[in-house]
């Protein structure tokens, strides 16, 4: 009887622990989904604005209200790997004309961004795989807008404007 | 002397009445007013606490419901003719999220995906090819058959009603990340409740 009671007490404690974990896990998940999340960036494609191992805060509100604008830095799901994310700057929205030729090309070529898509480019144009290689990305792949850099501490604050201003037409 | 005082008292009876009244009733009056304020304050505070806890419970259960729809499955009401005869207009289906999160979507599955042209709309089509597969891009009436390969991380979607469906044959392959869930059960109408049929266009799955 005593063992049974102990076992039942232990069982009830486990169930309530699991219940609380699920509850608070769901609330945390919804906070990350609707408010914002911390992202650790890697790679050279956004230098000098964001360097390797920087931690930024990416807010989700703009994306849900469809208020992403030209010049925003966004986190999006990679069109080539559903488990990876990419961090690039929005150079053109749907209907915009974007320049597809490089700065060293003699003949400038342009294209229009189709409906429901965005044109993404990294700030480090020489070392970035972006829409110039894989074309415009559907808006629905965007996860959030990067609004604050949190790490390293000497670079804390709002992010800089695009260093390649000539490309935003 | 007493006559003078009496006359003065009678002449200023109102002042006397106020003085006497306030001396004997002030404590009680003050108590009544104080208890009145406290009661209102307590009622207001109780109402505020009830409102806050109601909002708290709503947020809590809303989050749990959202996570259930996000990780387990959701009910979807389909509209449009592009998946006839498998799914007709106003059918309600259950679309599970587990396959998509574990990347186990296969050829022949019917999926709900976000539209590549409108981030607020969803589309319901069948997967005809996964990344690396060869898909037929020409129609059944074309003489010369053309093929293409599905790029990495993309899928090729086609509706079952080939004549009346805007799908990958017009807008190309879509990224896998746009897929929301896999349709596994038809819930409504009741006479067609159950698992969904295989593709009527079997020749197109290469």
Automatic annotation (TrEMBL), chain A:
Active-site positions on this chain: 45, 88
Subcellular location field: Mitochondrion inner membrane
GO CC terms in record: mitochondrial inner membrane peptidase complex
Annotated keywords: Hydrolase, Membrane, Mitochondrion, Mitochondrion inner membrane, Protease
Domain of life: Eukaryota
EC number assigned by the record: 3.4.21.-
A molecular-function term among this protein's GO annotations: serine-type endopeptidase activity
Membrane is among the record's keywords: yes
GO biological process, one term: signal peptide processing
Class of enzymatic activity (EC top level): hydrolase
Keyword Iron included in the entry's annotation: no
UniProt cross-references to SUPFAM superfamilies, sorted A to Z: LexA/Signal peptidase
Residues annotated as domain Peptidase S26: 19-101, 107-151
InterPro entries on file: LexA/Signal_pep-like_sf, Mito_IMP1_subunit, Pept_S26A_signal_pept_1, Peptidase_S26
Quaternary structure and partners: Heterodimer of 2 subunits, IMMPL1 and IMMPL2.
Protein family per UniProt: Belongs to the peptidase S26 family. IMP1 subfamily.
NCBIfam families named in the record: sigpep_I_bact
Protein name in the entry: Mitochondrial inner membrane protease subunit
Source species of the chain: Cyprinus carpio carpio
Automatic annotation (TrEMBL), chain B:
UniProt keyword list: Hydrolase, Membrane, Mitochondrion, Mitochondrion inner membrane, Protease
EC number of this enzyme: 3.4.21.-
Subcellular localization(s) per the UniProt record: Mitochondrion inner membrane
Family per record: Belongs to the peptidase S26 family. IMP1 subfamily.
Name of the protein in question: Mitochondrial inner membrane protease subunit
Entry-linked Gene3D superfamilies: Umud Fragment, subunit A
Gene Ontology molecular function, alphabetical: serine-type endopeptidase activity
Quaternary assembly: Heterodimer of 2 subunits, IMMPL1 and IMMPL2.
